[in-house]
Amino acid sequence: MTTGTSDAILQRMMALHPKIIDLTLDRVWRLLKALDNPQDKLPPVIHIAGTNGKGSTQAMIRAGLEAAGKTVHAYTSPHLARFHERIRLAGELISEEALTEVLDECYAANGGEPITYFEITTAAALLAFSRVPADYVLLEVGLGGRLDATNVVAEPVLTIITPVSIDHQQYLGETLAEIAGEKAGIIKRGVPCIVGPQEEAGLEVIEARAERLGAPLIAAGQHWFSFEDAGSLVYQDERGLLDLPLPNLPGPHQIQNAGAALAALRALGFDADACEAAVTEAYWPARMQRLREGPLAESSVGAELWLDGGHNPAAGEAIAATLDRLPPRPTWLICGMLNTKDIAGFMRPLAGHAAGLLAVSIPGEANTLPADVTAEKANEAGIPARTAASVQDALDSILDETPGARVLICGSLYLAGDVLARNEELPV
Q1: How far is CA 40 from each of CA 110, 185, 220, 241, 270, rounded to the nearest angstrom?
Q2: Are 358 and 397 in contact (CB under 8 A)?
Q3: Would you state the pLDDT for residue 3?
Q4: Which of 56, 119, 153, 298 is least enclosed by beta carbons within 10 angstroms?
Q5: How many CB atoms lie within 10 A of CB 78?
Q6: Going by C-beta distance under 8 Å and a sequence separation of 6 or more, which residues neighbour residue 301?
Q7: So what's the pLDDT on residue 314?
Q8: Structural domains present in the chain
Q9: Using CB atoms within 10 A of its CB, is residue 370 exposed (0-12), middle (13-18) or buried (19+)?
Q10: Nearest to 44 by CA among 134, 140, 147
Q11: What is this structure's pTM?
Q12: 55 with 140: CB under 8 angstroms?
């Protein structure tokens, strides 16, 4: 066994990463066998894939389950400020002691063999989940689905596919149908699958796989409906109608995420009280999160400060729709992105909402897009843009020019994590 803090062990794990990422489950199966197959010793698993909305949907399901008195493990990625956020044991973020223990054990069991960071840390999460009693496990896919390290549970109680859109083409395929095929890889024989709103090309692929496996589909627009009416969330399925408060997570896109969460809770037999808690008590930071306290917020008195980690075209459209709902106010963007993303696709929906954009490089992130390139792409998308040395410098510059502005920090979950850490607002 090795020794050290969780950060030290995680750093050592990075050295095991293959030179080329090839999506396969071979390395995961090898490690899980060495760990005595913890994936077979879990509470009932709800497995969630999709391009957008996975985290929000998971957060709402967790809120509903916990309101019903259930204890819940949850796995998500990436983390924002610290790794512990990825693993929630029976409702609480994993402790440093427990995290160090399972990471240490996985590192030793791997025996120095090549394995990706996500694969070995997913194995650690499964090991932790197998040792602490709970009623459910919420398991979020990292990338794709079919060959994702989380896709090792033979019989989940439920699978969920949130909206699928174009992202991660280098790994999942160039077309929507190809990407949907990878997401649909989590569907298991005979296991019900909740399906969020999909484009036709994606839905056809999901339906075809479900039919081959005899997996009942519970699909948006067919088996359940979720919409806003007169300031309420209306949800309807074969069991009847629910009239609920609007989701506490901001943005019109959360109506459909809520619908998927409610469909899941209803499929599991939970009542209207659990459903109401799902939409009123969910916690999911860096998704159109209003920053009201902390150093950044305190340095921008009179301004309205928001944070969102969305980074693909669908996220750009969701953010734009959310801004449409807010009272008119001069709006500026502070944006940092990874060099693997569709920068223009993310920015185009925002062009009509932004008075300007200040581009930053993401601190400590090797794959950051240089600030000058982000600014260039923003200008091409029709947003007047320039660079800044840091988020704080960008914020100071904006407020010097437009006191009382609405400022949205956006473009990457990695940037969002850095902002939350600097704002002393660690996720809990």
Answers
A1: 19, 19, 31, 37, 25
A2: yes
A3: 43
A4: 298
A5: 15
A6: none
A7: 84
A8: 6-280 (3.40.1190.10), 289-422 (3.90.190.20)
A9: middle
A10: 134
A11: 0.92
A12: yes
pLDDT at 1: 35
Residues sharing a CB contact under 8 Å with residue 207, sequence separation 6 or more, in sequence order: 217, 219
Spatial distance between the Cα atoms of 161 and 118, rounded to a whole number of angstroms = 20
Nearest to 332 by CA among 355, 316, 350: 355
- Of the candidates 210, 212, 214, 213, the one whose C-alpha atom is nearest the C-alpha of residue 198 is 210
Question: If the chain, 428 residues long, is cut into consecutive pieces of 10 residues, what is the mean pLDDT of each piece?
Answer: 72 81 89 98 98 95 98 96 96 97 97 95 98 98 94 98 77 83 96 97 97 98 97 96 97 96 98 98 94 91 93 90 94 95 92 96 93 96 96 96 96 94 89
284 vs 166: CA distance, rounded Å: 23
Residue type, 386: R
One-letter amino acid identity for 47?
H
Partners of 216 in the β-ladder:
none
Task: Centre a 10 Å sphere on the Cβ of residue 271 and count the other Cβ atoms it contains.
Answer: 12
Tokens representing residue 146 in the block: 């079919």
Q: Six-digit token pair at 285?
A: 């930071």
Check: CB of residue 244 under 8 Å from CB of residue 271: no
Side chain identity, residue 285: P
Structure tokens at 169: 């083409």
DSSP letter for 312, please.
S
| pLDDT confidence of residue 20 | 66
In the chain, the amino acid numbered 252 is: P
Tokens of 57: 């949907």
Sign of CA dihedral 378, 380, 384, 390: positive
